[in-house]
Amino acid sequence: xxxxxxxxxxxxxxxxxxxxxxxxxxxxxxxxxxxxxxxxxxxxxxxxxxxxxxxxxxxxxxxxxxxxxxxxxxxxxxxxxxxxxxxxxxxxxxxxxxxxxxxxxxxxxxxxxxxxxxxxxxxxxxxxxxxxxxxxxxxxxxxxxxxxxxxxxxxxxxxxxxxxxxxxxxxxxxxxxxxxxxxxxxxxxxxxxxxxxxxxxxxxxxxxxxxxxxxxxxxxxxxxxxxxxxxxxxxxxxxxxxxxxxxxxxxxxxxxxxxxxxxxxxxxxxxxxxxxxxxxxxxxxxxxxxxxxxxxxxxxxxxxxxxxxxxxxxxxxxxxxxxxxxxxxxxxxxxxxxxxxxxxxxxx
Length: 348
Ligand code: CO
Ligand code: CO
Ligand code: CO
What we know:
The protein has two domains: about 10-155, CATH 3.30.1330.10; about 170-345, PurM-like C-terminal domain (Phosphoribosyl-aminoimidazole Synthetase, Chain A, domain 2). The protein is about 35% helix and about 20% strand. The protein is built from eleven helices and 13 strands. The protein has helices at about 25-30, 75-95, 115-130, 180-190, 195-205, 210-215, 230-240, 260-265, 270-280, 290-300, 315-325, and strands at about 40-45, 50-55, 60-70, 95-105, 135-140, 145-155, 170-175, 220-225, 245-250, 285, 305-310, 330-340, 345. The strands form two sheets. Strands 8-11-7-12-9-13-10 form a seven-stranded mixed beta sheet, sandwiched between helices. It has a six-stranded mixed beta sheet with strand order 1-2-3-6-4-5, covered by helices on one side. β2 (about 50-55) and β3 (about 60-70) form a beta hairpin. The relative contact order is 0.18. One cobalt (II) ion binds next to α2 and β8.
């Protein structure tokens, strides 16, 4: 039995969301490193994307990723589900099919009952089963703070890899999950969120991007990424940087949790949102008519967020309709790719 008296989010020292190390720090740690060269490495660190891709044959490439983090919800099984869905998402964002996974676990064995770890791993297995993924191993270390995630390997056709960096002018941008999970996680940690909200947002974070990915690859999609720790505008900025193109976003079209909007208006904003804003804010022009709480949610760090898909405009309505038919009801066109201004994000 799991000890329900322990609130997992109270055991996390930081902000309880994915973005802690600032992205600028990470760039400094990696820049100028002497990276190995291999002609079969189709997507590597030099053009970092959601996942790395390595060609095995003309028909098959491996797509590999790893994600792990501390709990943002109190229920250990749900935390495991969310961490697994989040890790699998990078494979789905590239149009890949996940095949195998390994657990990565940090566990405070001196202060936490082992039944909690079991429940976390059961949650992860539940999502792996849904994804058709086989657990092949893992590694556990003792740490002062619980952390869990997966290293995932999938298959992809070397000629059909969806990266962040191939936006085309005229593309419509489609988002498949609401934003605001960072604010909701902050409210959960502060004890402000009721069960109904926690259940709804937990379900959304635990939802695989599998169905969205399987549908998207049937359309003329030019680029895709998933929304996680850098927030909606941070991940969008990664698509825009070096693309040569700009993006126009209609803030009112971006799906957002109503409770997150209320809490953001009260000032309940995770530190990661400010980090994201200071890192990528210089690429973004936000109209003064966009309410401040909406602006804040556009930078809010997400856990297991939706796919952000750039699709040929002629097919955008059909893709949204197909997503909605499959139960992804909040799917919406949130903006378009434009020639001018180049490499800027206009939010109005
Ligand atoms: Co990603
Ligand atoms: Co990732
Ligand atoms: Co080992």
